[in-house]
From TrEMBL:
The lineage of its organism: Bacteria, Pseudomonadati, Pseudomonadota, Alphaproteobacteria, Hyphomicrobiales. Residues 699-954 form the EAL domain. This is PAS domain S-box-containing protein/diguanylate cyclase (GGDEF) domain-containing protein. The keyword Endoplasmic reticulum does not apply. The keyword Transmembrane helix applies. It comes from Afifella marina DSM 2698. Gene3D superfamilies: 3.30.70.270, EAL domain, PAS domain. The chain crosses the membrane at residues 185-206, 218-238, 250-270, 277-297, 303-326, 333-353, 365-382. InterPro entries: 7TMR_DISM_rcpt_extracell_dom1 (IPR011623), Biofilm_reg_signaling (IPR052155), EAL_dom (IPR001633), EAL_sf (IPR035919), GGDEF_dom (IPR000160), Nucleotide_cyclase (IPR029787), PAC (IPR001610), PAS (IPR000014). Residues 474-526 form the PAC domain.
Length: 964
């Protein structure tokens, strides 16, 4: 049996239509009582969404019990549509007029991340019977007038502009008007106060002009804009619809967060506390400013970000305020009440937007809370605006200016009423002394009791003299006893005031606490004549006492005083092996030992680094003085326990007996000369100075021995490694001269170099050093052909530099040795080139052209003439060890950085001498230094050991070279 296709098609079309329109079941009518002012229909309506512009629903059952079906078409043709459906019943026998109200914007439940910024809610309302409700033109809400006949049950279908319907109420017309009018006065007051505050803070900014006031004015205007939008004023003034107000509302919320950040950063001066505060604030302001651009695209997203940024700003601000308040910053303390109100407001706002509290008063209450916040901010900054405002404008009296000057200078008023014999003093002095208020006021005799006993008579005499002479000034420094028994120093400056009868009426002036200045002065005086480490007299004080002893001896025709000079043997080795702190402990122990052996009439002083001088006033016999010097050496020789080791040190003693008419400095110098003579004989012995014998004999002997050593091969070179910091490998060596005497043992360069310069042997010694260093360097370079060639630095003396033959010597050495160009490096000190800068510049330029390189040694300790430095063809600067070792000075790293930067700007490499610790090397690496040498990487070694180390130079060196 075939079925006709036409009825089947009709059935399918009807089925699809019913699926699309989703007809609702019959509604339950909501009874509208006569005496109720408002009904909340928000949760009582049924919501529908249709894919078409039509909706078919079932109406509520009428009075006859019949359920009808009606179809409604949207005002916009085509497309989807959103609807709400509800039914109202009038069970009374009277006609009922009601207003259906749907507000455009509602803060409660608007949300945080994607807030509802308001829009038109209801487009049209269609009843199931009767006339269509009248659409009333009301700002801020969609309002429709609904009329219900007696006993009528009417179903209403309302077309929505979007699926969002935040609130729907049915109002009595009179009750709705009363509700609107009840908030009108409140809104007007709040808006007026907000505008006045914004205007007042703006005027305050114009008057004062400091950054704090424009920041607060911006905050006030942001609050005013937010309230004006919230109360619908902006929409009325500019004729804006709900959709246009979305961008305005988002802009005010962004501006509120931005203004709050600017105010906090400006008021608390965050940029002054730390530069990071300024950076974070700047980044945060850039992010908030970018939200204004987002508003043009999507106001909802911009408002959501602003609502998230506001609590972040408030919480971070709270942390900063608490931190600064605990540090005693007065502005942070004054901002605590305002920020407390802001935190409470933020909590209530979060409860509102999240829908946790729902009350018609919460939205205007939050607006009033913002105004209260601005009022507190205004009161806070007004204290800065007007506190001492006269001072800022210069409207102060002459007396006030003088009083402020006293306070600024830290002085207190001192006034003595002579007629009443009463002294009045500023309470600041009583506070400094720890005394009770008024303790220093009263008669002069009571006040004088607080002075130091040695100052009372002098001070009383000054007061009596001023009163007797009726003129003059009081300018006294004295001590006053504090409550804890200490005496503090004070400086009184006053003058008498004479009355009409010519008598002194009072003395007035200022009193200042000068304890710190006096203590610093005493410390400077002490340090000028006493050694800082041991507390013993220094050379200056020792010479003064020696001079006084010589004068007393000549005047009284008594025995002349004697001087013993003790020079410690090998003390530098103790410092090198154990550190400077251990060396200082050794010096302190020796100073205590020597002090115990002296009589009260004798003087012990520390002369130089490891030298001690003893002045004996009662002993001038040579044998007796020598015996006493031997006892001192024996005391020094005893072991000194330091930590878990015993340090032993010996001393060479020199004895000098003063003669009549002898100069003070000559006597000490004679003792030092005798000590050096004892040291040359092997040390740990006593030598008596005899005029003309020791110096001449020692000098002649040492000169002859040095000449023989140069001929006999006793002079040797040792090499100290220079490390390249970029890869921690050996870059070269510095050649150092050593003399091993067959009888005297090792003779330090500090002894034989001056002899060589005086005798002219320095030229021969310098040429020997150049040839031997170039020969060793050539051997190393021949054995090590990979990588950059090694270099060797050789020191040049003044006599060599000022001889034109140096050019020929360098040329001959380079030709005979065949070393790589610029690997033989000549080191010249600053003082040498500055002796004759013009000649030195010419010499150095010619040496550089021969193929040798040049290094400026001990840079920073000599003249450091920068105007000449750029004229010399140096390729390397050697920084003196005094700038490398960490001595605790704050200026040292600044000077070191400046030297390295200067060298790099002049195109020179830098070699730092004296690296003793890993921290020294790390600092040099951070400063960009190229090379370093010091005991950390190796001590001076023989040519063979240097050759072995050079063979391993491809491997990075450890902190302490094993070959050393």
């Amino acid at each position: 049996m075939r079925v006709s296709p036409f009825p089947l098609r009709i059935l399918l079309v009807l089925a699809a239509f019913f699926v699309l329109v989703r007809p609702a079941a019959a509604l339950e009518a909501i009874e509208v009582p006569l005496g109720v002012a408002t009904l909340d229909l928000t949760d009582a309506v049924e919501r529908y969404s249709s894919d078409t512009d039509r909706l078919q629903v079932s109406t509520a059952a009428g009075a006859d019990g019949i359920v009808r079906r009606i179809e409604v078409r949207a005002q916009n043709d085509g497309g989807s549509s959103d609807w709400v459906v509800f039914a109202l019943a009038n069970t009374s026998d009277e006609q009922i007029d009601r207003l259906l109200v749907a507000p455009h914007y509602r803060l409660v439940g608007s949300g945080v991340l994607t807030p509802d910024l308001g829009s038109v809610r209801i487009v049209a309302v269609t009843p199931s019977e009767g006339f269509a409700p009248e659409h009333l033109d009301e700002p801020g809400a969609d309002v429709f007038r609904i009329t219900l006949d007696p006993g009528a049950i009417v179903t209403y279908i309302a077309q929505l502009s979007s699926p969002k319907l935040t609130e729907l109420h049915l109002w009595q017309p009179e009750a709705y008007e009363e509700s609107v009018n009840s908030f009108t006065l409140y809104r007007g007051i709040v808006l007026g106060i907000s505008a006045l505050l914004a205007l007042f803070l703006t005027v305050l900014f114009v008057v004062r002009g400091t950054a704090m006031f424009p920041a607060s004015a911006i905050l006030a205007w942001a609050v005013f804009g937010y309230i004006a939008i919230d109360f619908g004023i902006i929409g009325k003034v500019f004729g804006l619809g709900p959709e246009a107000l979305q961008a305005w509302r988002a802009a005010t919320e962004v501006l509120l967060s931005l203004a709050l950040t600017v105010f906090l950063a400006t008021y608390l001066h965050l940029h002054r506390w730390h530069i990071r505060y300024a950076h974070l604030t700047g980044i945060w302001l850039v992010v908030l400013t970018a939200l204004f651009g987002i508003i043009l695209i999507d106001p909802t997203t911009a408002a959501g970000i602003a609502r998230i940024s506001l609590p972040i700003t408030v919480m971070l601000g709270l942390a900063v305020i608490v931190y600064l308040a605990f540090r005693g910053f007065d502005r942070a303390i004054m901002l605590v009440p305002s920020w407390t109100i802001l935190v409470f407001w933020l909590a209530m706002a979060w409860l509102a937007v999240s829908g946790r509290i729902d009350n018609p008063s919460i939205q205007p209450a939050l607006a009033g809370g913002l105004v209260l916040l601005v009022m507190l901010v205004a009161f806070t900054i007004m204290q800065h605006a007007f506190a001492g405002g006269g001072l800022a404008q210069g409207i102060v009296s002459d007396a006030e200016q003088k009083a402020l000057a006293l306070v600024g200078a830290g002085h207190a008023i001192w006034d003595w009423d002579v007629a009443r014999d009463r002294i009045e003093i500023g309470h600041e002095i009583e506070t400094v002394l720890g005394l009770k208020r008024g303790a220093l006021e009263g008669p002069a005799r009571n006040w004088l009791g607080t002075l130091h006993p040695t100052d009372r008579d002098r001070f009383r005499a000054v007061l009596d003299a001023v009163i007797a002479q009726r003129r003059g000034r009081i300018n006294q420094i004295f001590r006053m006893r504090a409550a804890d028994g200490r005496f503090l120093w004070f400086h009184l400056k006053a003058r008498p005031i004479v009355g009409a009868d010519g008598e002194v009426m009072r003395c007035s002036g200022t009193l200042a606490d000068v304890t710190e200045a006096r203590t610093a002065e005493d410390r400077l005086l002490h340090d000028a004549i006493f050694d800082n480490l041991t507390g013993l007299p220094n050379r200056q004080l020792f010479l003064d006492r020696l001079e006084q002893a010589l004068l007393r001896a000549e005047a009284a025709a008594t025995l002349m005083p004697s001087v013993i000079y003790l020079d410690l043997d090998g003390f530098q080795r103790i410092n090198d092996e154990n550190g400077i702190s251990v060396g200082d402990s050794v010096l302190l122990a020796i100073a205590r030992r020597l002090s115990r052996l002296l009589s009260p009439a004798d003087t012990l002083a520390r002369i130089g680094g490891d030298g001690f001088a003893i002045l004996l006033g009662a002993q001038s016999e040579a044998d007796g003085v020598q015996e006493f010097a031997d006892s001192l050496r024996i005391a020094v020789r005893a072991a000194i326990p330091i930590g878990d080791q015993d340090i032993r040190v010996t001393a060479s003693a020199g004895v000098a007996i003063a003669t009549k008419g002898a100069a003070t400095a000559e006597t000490l110098k004679d003792a030092e000369t005798a000590s050096f003579h004892a040291k040359r004989q092997g040390g740990d012995r006593t030598s008596l100075y005899r005029p003309g014998e020791i110096v001449r004999r020692d000098s002649d002997d040492l000169q002859a021995d040095l000449a023989a050593a140069l001929e006999g091969g006793e002079i040797e070179l040792v090499y100290q490694p220079i490390i390249r910091l970029s890869d921690n490998t050996i870059a070269g060596f510095e050649a150092l001269v050593r003399w091993e005497h067959p009888r005297r043992g090792s003779v330090p360069p500090s002894e034989f170099i001056p002899v060589a310069e005086e005798s002219g042997l320095i030229v021969q010694l310098g040429l020997f050093t150049l040839e031997r260093a170039a020969r060793d360097l050539a051997l190393w370079q021949a054995a090590l052909r990979e990588g950059p060639p090694l270099f060797v630095s050789v020191n040049v003396s003044s006599q060599q530099l000022l001889r034109y033959d140096l050019i020929n010597d360098v040329k001959a050495v380079l030709a005979r040795s065949g070393v790589a160009p610029e690997t033989l490096k000549l080191e010249i000190t600053e003082s040498l080139v500055m002796q004759n800068p013009e000649f030195a510049a010419k010499m150095l330029e010619e040496i550089r052209n021969l193929g040798a390189s040049l290094a400026l040694d001990d840079f920073g300790t000599g003249y450091s003439a920068l105007s000449y430095l750029q004229r010399f063809p140096f390729d390397t600067i050697k920084v003196d060890r005094s700038f490398v070792a960490n001595n605790g000075s704050t200026a040292r790293p600044v000077i070191l950085r400046s030297i390295i930067t200067l060298a790099h700007d002049l195109g020179m490499d830098v070699v730092a001498e004296g690296a003793e610790t890993e921290s020294d090397t790390l600092e040099l690496i951070q400063l960009g230094c190229e090379y370093v040498q010091g005991y950390l990487y190796g001590r001076p070694m023989s040519s063979q050991m240097a050759h072995q180390m050079a063979r391993r130079r491809q491997q990075p060196q450890q902190s302490l070279a094993r070959s050393a």
